[in-house]
Every structure is written in C-alpha cells, then in structure tokens.
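Section 5: illustrative case.
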C-alpha cells in the first residue's frame, strides 16, 4: 500500500491485514475488496464532532484519510464446458446440427473463455493521511 502524508503532525493509526484496512485500533474497518469496482474508487475517512470516524460522511468536521482503490483487473481463463450465456437460437441450431451429423467433434470437450476478476492487489491501494492534531478519536 502506498502511504502519502499530506501535512505535518500526528496521523491516525492504521493497519492493513489482507484486504482489510483498520483505523484507530478497530474504530473503523474497511474491507477494500468490497469497495472495488470496474473503475477506481476513492473513499474519504472523516471525523465528526463526537470523535467518530466516518466513510464519506456528510456530518464531517475533520479530514482523516483518503483511500484510493484501483479498478478491478480481469484475466481471461479457459473453462471446460458450454458457456452459460448461450442464446436460445444457438441452442436450437445446435440440436438440429446434432441430429444431422453425429461425428467425433460432437463428443469432444468444449471450452470457452470466461473473464474472471483478479483479487485486489493491496500494493496498488493508496492511503493519504491528514494530520489529526485537533481531532480526538473515540
């Protein structure tokens, strides 16, 4: 994880365990993989007047951190069997062809390519930290 300190002063304590980013000894925990989408996602960690940490909170008074999560990366994987999203037309055509010609090709294993999401690489996550000198976390 890339960590950038945006200004001088005391920062929130954090710990990265797998894809879970923990702030202030369990006060707030984010499962970064759950926030990952097909596009980069940025979440802002803020604090309210009572000392609570919030993710993209509307009642915020203090900036604490910003977490930048990269877009999902995909890989093409060859999978045995028929693709699940075969249309009815293709299925019907396949039935008529099978009755007309029963060759060795019909019994051969069929494969297709599926697009699979790769696990989140936390080395690509960026954490930006602001000073929390004036903010006391509960």
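Designed sequence:
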């Amino acid at each position: 994880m890339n960590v950038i300190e945006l200004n001088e002063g005391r920062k929130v304590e954090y710990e990265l365990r797998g894809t879970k980013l923990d702030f202030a000894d369990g006060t707030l925990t984010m499962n970064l993989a759950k926030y990952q989408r097909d596009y980069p996602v940025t979440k802002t960690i803020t604090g309210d007047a009572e000392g609570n940490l919030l993710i993209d909170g509307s009642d915020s008074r203090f900036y604490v951190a910003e977490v930048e999560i990269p877009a999902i990366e995909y890989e093409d994987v060859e999978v045995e069997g028929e693709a699940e999203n075969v249309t009815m037309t293709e299925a019907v055509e396949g039935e008529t062809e099978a009755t007309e010609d029963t060759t060795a090709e019909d019994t051969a294993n069929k494969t297709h390519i599926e697009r699979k999401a790769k696990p989140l690489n936390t080395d690509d996550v960026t954490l930006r930290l602001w000073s929390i000198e004036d903010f006391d976390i509960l």
